[in-house]
C-alpha cells in the first residue's frame, strides 16, 4: 500500500523508506543555503510523493569528516519489480547476460585473484558464466548463418551491418561511421560489460549473400538491431544520425536506467567516495624505541636479533625519509619502498608476530599502517606473499576481539590493525581484505566504520560507472575487482546486516556518520530484485534506523 502524502508540517511520511530516514539522520549533509528548514517534494516512478524537510546542519557536523559532504536521499519505499535492468542492477540479469560480459574472464586471466583471496577464486567469480566474446575486436565477423546466430545467442544486444563495399559507394560512406560507433558503444570491460555487439556482413564474403536473403536484405547498406536474439528494428540507407539514434534506443532497451537515476539526489551524488585514510604520523623515534623495548623483553635468538636490525637499519630510515615534514622552499621527492626493503621487513614481521605478545605488536602494525600509504609498497604487497602477512596481523586482531576481555594493549593492537586494514582499502589491489567483525572502544568502532565505508564506496563507484553505460563513466582497470564486488549480492547483504547491527548499538556521532554513509553507498543503485533492497524492506532493519532517529530527536 502506498503511504499517504504528508503535509509540509509533518516530520516524516507515515511509512518512511530507509533512504528518507538516512536523509533525516546523517549530520553529514551539505549545509543548506539558509538556516531553518524547507520542504522538497520528490515524485517516484510509482507516482507517489514523499515530502520531507531537510534541516540545516550545525557547524560542528562539518568538522566530522569534510569529504562526506552530503547524504540526502528520498526514495520510494519499495523497489519496482520491473523487467531486468543493468547487469549490475539485477542478479538475474547478470546471469542471463553473463555470456556477453567479458569483464569476468579478462579479470580472472589477468589478475592474481588466488593471491588476493588467500588461496581460492571468490564465490561470486566461480558462479558467473564466462564470456565468449573478445574485447579486442570492436566488430565481429559473421560470414554465414551459423556464426551470425551464435553471435545473437551469446550477446544481449547486436547491431548488424549488411554491406557491399566493393560495388556500393553508399556502403563505403557509412561503414566508417558504423566502425566508429562500434568503438564508442561496443561491449567494454570499462563499462561493466555493457554495450552492443557490432557485426559486419559483406555480401561478397563467404555466405554473406545467403545470410542477407535469410533476413530479407535486398538493398545495401542495411542495419538490423537485435535484442536477446529478436529483431526489434531495421534501417536502410545512409543516415548517420538515424543510425546513432537507433543504436542508442537499442542500448536504452537493453540496459534501461536504474529507477534511482530519475530521482534528484544531489547530496548523495556530492558524497565523496574517496577512501578514509589514517595518515597521522606518530613520533617515529618513540615508536621504534617502544618496539625495541618489547623485543628486548623476550628471550634472545638469532632470528629476533636479525629482525630488530632490519627494523633499525632499514625500515626506520625509510619511514623517516618518506614522512619527513615537507619543505616548501626545497621540495624533495618522497622515497618509495623497494623489494630489497620489503622482503626482509615481511620476514622480520613474521618472526616478531610469533614471539611477541599481541599487546606488544601494535607499534609494528602502526609502521605497516604508514607503509601501505606508499603506492609502491601496497602494490608489492598485493603481488607477493607479503599480503599474507598483512592478513595474519588482521586475523590476530579478529581473534583478540573474540576474547571475553581485552587489556589496554590488546585494544591498542586491534585499533591499529583496523586502521591498517582501512588504509589497505585505499589501494585497489589490496582492497579484497575482509574483516569479520568489530567491537571494543570508540576508536576501534570508528576505524571499523571507516573500513566499512571504504568497502561500500568501492561498490558505489562501480555502480555509478555501470549505470552511466557506454560512453559514460568508466571503471578504472586497476579497480576492476570493485566491479566484481558490485555484482556480489551475498557479500553486500552481509555487510549491510553488519552495518545495521552496528548502527543499532552505536551512539558515537563520528561512527554513526560513517555507518550511515556506508549504508547509502550500498543502497543507491542497488539491484531492483536483489537481496540488499529486500533486506531493507524487512521491518526490523527500518525499525533500527527509525529508532536511532527517534532517540536522537532529529
TrEMBL record:
Keyword Glycoprotein set for record: no
SUPFAM superfamilies with a match to the protein in the record: Thioredoxin-like
Superkingdom: Eukaryota
Entry keyword set: Disulfide bond
Gene3D superfamilies: Glutaredoxin (3.40.30.10), Leucine-rich Repeat Variant (1.25.10.10)
Keyword Ligase carried by entry: no
InterPro entries hit by this protein: ARM-like, PUL_dom, Thioredoxin-like_sf, Thioredoxin_domain
Domain PUL: 269-554
Domain Thioredoxin: residue ranges: 115-252
One Pfam family matching this protein: PUL
Family matches, as PROSITE patterns: PUL, THIOREDOXIN_2
Name of the protein: Thioredoxin domain-containing protein
Amino acid at each position: 500500500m502506498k503511504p499517504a502524502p504528508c503535509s509540509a508540517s509533518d516530520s516524516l511520511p507515515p511509512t518512511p523508506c530507509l533512504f528518507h530516514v538516512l536523509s533525516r539522520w546523517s549530520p553529514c549533509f551539505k549545509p543548506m543555503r539558509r538556516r531553518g528548514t524547507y520542504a522538497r517534494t520528490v515524485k517516484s516512478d510509482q507516482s507517489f510523493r514523499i515530502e520531507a524537510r531537510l534541516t540545516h546542519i550545525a557547524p560542528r557536523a562539518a568538522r566530522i569528516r569534510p569529504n562526506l559532504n552530503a547524504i540526502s536521499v528520498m526514495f520510494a519505499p519499495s523497489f519496482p519489480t520491473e523487467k531486468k535492468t543493468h547487469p549490475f542492477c539485477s542478479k538475474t540479469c547478470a546471469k542471463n547476460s553473463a555470456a556477453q560480459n567479458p569483464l569476468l574472464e579478462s579479470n580472472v586471466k589477468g589478475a592474481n585473484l588466488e593471491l588476493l583471496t588467500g588461496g581460492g577464486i571468490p564465490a561470486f567469480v566461480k558462479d558467473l558464466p564466462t564470456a565468449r566474446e573478445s574485447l579486442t575486436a570492436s566488430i565481429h565477423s559473421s560470414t554465414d548463418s551459423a556464426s551470425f546466430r551464435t553471435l545473437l545467442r551469446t550477446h544481449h544486444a547486436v547491431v548488424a551491418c549488411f554491406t557491399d563495399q566493393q560495388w556500393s559507394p553508399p556502403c563505403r560512406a557509412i561503414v566508417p561511421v558504423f566502425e566508429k560507433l562500434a568503438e564508442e558503444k561496443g561491449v567494454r570491460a570499462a563499462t561493466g560489460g555493457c554495450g552492443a555487439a557490432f557485426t559486419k556482413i559483406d555480401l561478397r564474403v563467404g555466405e554473406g549473400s545467403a545470410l542477407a536473403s535469410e533476413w530479407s536484405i535486398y538493398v545495401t547498406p542495411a542495419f538490423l538491431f537485435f535484442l536477446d536474439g529478436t529483431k526489434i528494428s531495421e534501417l536502410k540507407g545512409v543516415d548517420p544520425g538515424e543510425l546513432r539514434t537507433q543504436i542508442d534506443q537499442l542500448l536504452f532497451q537493453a540496459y534501461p536506467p536504474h529507477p534511482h537515476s530519475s530521482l534528484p539526489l544531489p547530496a548523495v551524488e556530492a558524497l565523496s567516495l574517496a577512501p578514509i585514510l589514517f595518515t597521522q604520523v606518530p613520533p617515529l623515534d618513540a615508536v621504534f624505541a617502544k618496539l625495541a623495548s618489547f623485543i628486548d623483553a623476550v628471550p634472545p635468538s638469532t632470528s629476533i636479533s636479525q629482525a630488530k636490525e632490519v627494523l633499525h637499519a632499514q625500515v626506520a630510515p625509510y619511514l623517516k625519509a618518506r614522512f619527513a615534514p615537507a619543505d616548501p622552499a626545497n621540495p624533495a621527492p618522497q622515497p618509495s619502498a623497494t623489494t630489497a626493503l620489503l622482503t626482509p621487513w615481511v620476514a622480520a614481521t613474521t618472526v616478531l608476530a610469533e614471539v611477541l605478545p599481541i599487546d606488544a605488536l601494535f607499534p609494528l602494525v602502526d609502521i605497516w599502517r604508514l607503509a601501505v600509504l606508499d603506492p609502491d609498497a601496497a602494490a608489492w604487497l598485493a603481488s607477493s606473499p607479503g599480503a599474507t602477512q598483512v592478513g595474519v596481523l588482521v586475523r590476530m586482531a579478529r581473534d583478540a576481539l573474540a576474547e571475553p576481555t581485552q587489556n589496554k594493549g590488546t585494544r591498542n593492537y586491534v585499533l591499529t590493525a583496523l586502521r591498517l586494514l582501512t588504509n589497505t582499502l585505499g589501494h585497489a589491489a589490496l582492497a579484497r581484505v575482509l574483516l569479520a567483525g568489530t567491537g571494543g572502544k570508540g576508536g576501534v568502532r570508528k576505524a571499523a566504520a571507516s573500513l566499512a565505508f571504504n568497502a561500500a564506496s568501492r561498490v558505489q563507484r562501480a555502480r555509478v560507472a555501470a549505470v552511466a553505460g557506454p560512453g559514460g563513466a568508466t571503471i578504472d582497470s586497476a579497480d576492476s575487482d570493485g566491479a566484481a564486488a558490485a555484482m556480489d549480492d551475498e557479500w553486500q547483504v552481509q555487510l549491510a546486516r553488519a552495518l545495521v547491527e552496528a548502527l543499532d548499538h552505536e551512539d558515537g556521532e563520528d561512527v554513526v556518520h560513517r555507518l550511515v554513509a556506508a549504508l547509502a553507498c550500498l543502497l543507491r543503485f542497488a539491484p531492483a530484485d536483489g537481496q540488499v533492497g529486500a533486506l531493507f524492506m524487512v521491518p526490523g532493519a527500518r525499525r533500527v534506523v527509525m529508532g536511532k532517529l527517534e532517540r536522537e530527536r532529529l
